[in-house]
Design goal:
It is built from eight helices and eight strands; from the N terminus they run ααβαβαββαβααβββα. It is α/β, with parallel strands linked by helices and 216 residues long. It has one domain (4-214): Vaccinia Virus protein VP39 (Rossmann fold). Strands 3-2-1-4-5-8-6-7 form an eight-stranded mixed sheet, with helices on both faces. Strand 2, helix 4 and strand 3 form a beta-alpha-beta unit. Helix 2 (17-33) crosses helix 3 (49-56). It starts with a helix and ends with a helix.
């Protein structure tokens, strides 16, 4: 986000009733899948609305975003760090889990960001990636709005993204969050689900490589 005015406008949009319902579904999903994690890294967190809710549930959340202006809108309790996902400077083995909540597709060199994410996760660390589903009714409708953030997406080939993620993580996938107009409902239908989620732990060979390097 280029300036404080733009960041504040985006934060206000996030507080609208529709988006709060969307965020609630995302928070509940994350809460379930982060049960055994404490220290969480959220990559591309923006104003960190979802991250703030996770903090309320007892998680220790660090939000990373390229926009300092967006981070100034983050709620209390979320540790914020400005920087590029591809060049994150956290020490290796710093986090139990990393989440990308509709952010990975906007990152220029996302394979590099994933490699860095794997490095900063602890040996048993896991990743949760929520992607916008280009096949969905929601995505297609948003694309028609020239002012929509969806038009800033760099990567839409979900198969290619999944292939790249599997190089470092043992992921399972599912469709989530049906949206049609203003209606929000459970759905795993690829034509209705707004999100495609990838979730899973680091590959065993990646864990071992990190352990070997830390012993040197």
């Amino acid at each position: 986000m280029k300036d404080a005015k733009e960041a504040n406008k985006y934060a206000e949009i996030c507080r609208e009733a529709f988006w709060q319902k969307v965020f609630q579904v995302e928070v509940e999903y994350l809460n379930v899948h982060l049960q055994n994690s404490r220290d969480i890294l959220s990559v591309g967190c923006g104003p960190a609305m979802i991250e703030g809710e996770l903090v309320k549930r007892g998680l220790h959340v660090t939000g990373l975003d390229i926009s300092e202006e967006a981070l100034r809108c983050a709620p209390d309790g979320v540790r914020t760090v400005a920087g590029r996902a591809e060049d994150m400077l956290f020490p290796d083995s710093s986090f139990d889990a990393a989440i990308f909540v509709v952010s990975l597709q906007f990152i220029e060199d996302y394979p590099k960001a994933i490699k860095r994410t794997a490095a900063v996760l602890r040996p048993e660390g896991k990743i949760i990636i929520m992607l916008l589903n280009p096949r969905s009714v929601f995505y297609k409708a948003m694309r028609l709005n020239p002012d929509s953030y969806v038009n800033l997406i760099r990567h839409t080939n979900l198969s290619r993204i999944e292939q790249d993620i599997r190089k470092d993580f043992l992921i399972q996938t599912e469709y989530l969050l049906g949206i049609k107009g203003e209606n929000i409902f459970p759905s795993q239908d690829p034509d209705l689900a707004a999100l495609y989620v990838m979730e899973g732990p680091k590959r065993r060979d990646i864990r071992q490589r990190g352990s070997d390097e830390s012993e040197r």
